[in-house]
Fold these 3 entries.
Entry 1:
Amino acid sequence: MDHKERIRREESGLRNEVAYFGVFTALALIFSYVETLIPISFGVPGVKIGLANLVVVIALYKIALKEAYLLSVVRVLLAGFLFGNYFSIIYSLAGALLSLTVMAVLKKAGGFSIIGVSIAGGVFHNIGQLFVAMLVVETFRVAYYVPVLLIAGLLTGCVIGILSQEMLRRLTHWRVDG
Amino acid sequence: MKLELKKFHLKEKIDLQKKDWVLIAIIIFVAGLAFLMHHFIGGKGAGCVTVKVEGEIQGVYSLAEDQVIEINDGTNILEIRNGTADVTGADCPDKLCVNQKAISKNGESIICLPNKVVVTVDSSENSEFDAVAQ
């Protein structure tokens, strides 16, 4: 790498993708931890804001999709081993992967703002978890929660979307050099 | 010196596209539909609760009779009182099933995921729906 190239990369912001991936993972993990400290109960078991999804949404818009997937999986595994259990890992993983896939599709389809993408992410996070719950307990009775989970996903996704939008506005000069 | 405060414009913060609104409308519509479906098909006049462990029926108990049932050799305790069923004890760490409200309406359920226990209110009147739903 010659001198000019190095300067160009330095000016553009990030030089070390791996280091930044580590920072993102740590941030997502911290958000997962902070969330376990918030004693807010929405009256329905399993509903939470999903602060860690903020990092995933930012990663989706700022880093490549592949890294966003990796970040999502690593975050779920680490948070699951630290704060959850075997079951919470399976539910989180199903929710996180479905959510990220839907968000990536909507982002690629175009026409959706980051808030819309995040709302879809929040809703499908819940749907993914509900689907696994149906498989585990071998009953469709959990469909009883569908309306609550849809609205909860809509609201939390909206909050995360607004936060992501504000963050991205302040990170305009920031991008990862692949 | 004049002090100017920048107003916080929430409308500017949330600039939703047309497709976003369509998405939100669809989600609310589906949620409303699911709610109505449950409300009307779920119906009233519940008669008994079915206890399932790992998808297999362990027992059917009447809601009319006050009783305490140990599910799965005591991993979960089910209490039936005044026509409602409530899980009052569980050996799982998160206790989500214990924190859930007591159930009484047809189709309502309490689920303990770690122990794979499902407690559902059933009534014999709309068994057709139950067969489909299973």
Entry 2:
Amino acid sequence: MKPNQIYSKWFVMPAFLLFFILFLMPSILGMYTSFTNWNAMSENMRFIGLTNYVKIFGDSAILRVFGNNIYYAVWTSLLKGVFGLLLALVLNRALKTRNVLRMIFFLPMIISNLIVGLVFQQIFHPAHGILNEFLKLIGLGSLARGWIIDPGLVMGSSVAIEVWKAAGFNMVIFLAGLQSVPAEMYEACDIDGGNAWRQFVNVTLPFILPSIVINMLLNIISGLKVFDVIFALTNGGPGRSSEVISITIFNEFSYGNYGYATALSTLLFLALSLISISVIRFYMRKGERAME
Amino acid sequence: MKRRARMTNLSLEILMWLISLLILIPLAMILLNSVKNVKESAIMSLKLPTEFHFENFSQVLSDDKVVRSFFNSLLLSAGSTVLTIVLSGLAAYVLSRNRSKGNRLLYMLFLLGLVAPLNYITTVKVMQLLGIINTFGGAILLYTALFIPFTVFLYYGFIGSVPRELDEAAMIDGCRGLGIFFRIIFPLLKPVTMTALVLNFLNCWNDFIIPLYFLNSSRKWGMVMLMYNYFSRYVSSWNLVSASMIVNMVPIVLLYIFGQKYLISGMTAGAVKG
């Protein structure tokens, strides 16, 4: 019997059709509607060419939103990576309670982003949040700030929350990567008299390079897609100082500016699709190697 | 030398526990505030309550809306998880076994769905046209469409390690079509199925965006959406909000404790192995 008789393509179809109709097709449709004036007010949709895109790139407020989003994606990626790696290096050692500690550091990953946003709204509260209270308690009251009401600080605070939430995820991926370092390599390095730093650079780093790559890719992707934590924390405020693309899309959707909002969605889709090509390459290469 | 290593480990352990407070304190704050009275919880702090008000929980749980939304969440999460597992397992089986040009293209499109964002606005339109907007069925189908890429990816990686000879043996024994997959192969995929179950259930339970765009009727809201509503309604009653947060977190924390192994293996799948 031929493979296409046992492995019928009809078995792929239910999953693919569902995925196509509710995911791919809307994205393609969105590319079309981004060239129209589709909105909640009027019945007929009119083709208006690049007008929505011209409006987006000519609007300094939207460019600041892009800036916020890029700032968020870059800083969360780096900090989640650095803290995740430090946690992984320590919790890869023979500590007695390392399993409990790993579990605690991963815990925030499973909590709803809405809860995280609302709780940190209270922690960062300028008047009675526990962060400012704590700073006053240890005599650093002068460092107390309006963490989420100061337009200059609010993006930094949002980054801090994401690092709090997802450094543990980076840790878990690094821990898995660290298992691939052969113990003999460390011994060989010890005999050669290498110090801890040289050991890290010469032995550990080459082996965890794939984990670094995938962590950074996943971090950038989730950073560009961010919505719910910031939505719950500030809803983009004060003013528009913590607004990110997904929040703008949601707001424009609420105002009924569908054509304009789908132009923003399309830009986000294209940016992430470019990144996803490198992700697909990464996985496909792995798949090929696993097949050998 | 050994002694020094032990000392280093001990001090690192102490340091780690101190750092873990950063994670634990915000969570402790929710717990503490869930048993305070309204006045004490108006400011969310780490002060101990003067007396414990466990009736906050009975007040939250006696609210019909909370009970209903709890079961709504359960329905949405269980429905989409089961549907995702069945459809993705079957698709990944064929894609992995028959790597024709067409199938490789389909797999790449699934991988694109792993990263690309959903266009919520046009999806709303499509669901309106299909007449499934604002229904449980529609929401379950949408979650399934969103979870399929990652679940296909998980299964695809694992099925490669299941010997092809099993398919042939099953055929000789008279198994046909879907029977080969569901009776012979699917039971062998249990580790991935558990991972997919834990991960998708968790993602659906915690999701906040789909109801925001797709479920306008408050009767159909899940726990997370209701909590958001609680927050705006009882804006200064942090005791009730906190109690509802705890009610929301109990199922997922249990899932985390019992399914931790599967959760972690799912999240690291493909990232480092291979």
Entry 3:
Amino acid sequence: MPVVGHYHHVHLISPDPRAAAEWFVEFLGGNIFKDEELRGARNVRVRLGECMLNIRGERESDTIEKSITGKQRFGIDHFCLEVGGLEGMLREVTAKGGEIPEPLFELPSGNRAAYVAGPDGVVIELIEPKA
Amino acid sequence: MKLGECLLNIRGKRPEDSVAPPETGKRYGIDHICFQVTGIEKMLEEFAAKGGEISELLFELPNGNRGAYIAGPEG
């Protein structure tokens, strides 16, 4: 099996990678552990539990589609983080001014989940496994 | 589907979805996901032999890790 372990990281692009990283610290309790120039752009690394997010700025070679259509697109849609205490987390997100586009719902498996709006249009699902 | 210990959920278009036409460049937000692999050179050879597109050839990061980008389905 050539793929080993869990995801190594999810990579985001932001016009302000430090500010985006700080969003994950403020709203989801992340920890910024590296902020460096890497391969032509600022790259900030955030740990969320055992997950790693890399958030980079624009490279000179990038052509960024800046129009916001409000539509989804095919391909990667969101990423999902496993959490504990989902209801409490959602209350905290709301209290800090965060947006919850899809409130708490239950999946057929009994797991509970919700979607929160992250920086730069990123959609994050929070899932709490059934006890 | 499972890839190593990673779970991918791939769903079709729901009737209520409003899906934008394909874009030509990158956009802010999620750019890619990264899998840790073993035998990367062989994987890339096999991938190319099957007609897969390698968007960015093998490169080395400052920490010594080696990486490459491949094009998946739907962009």
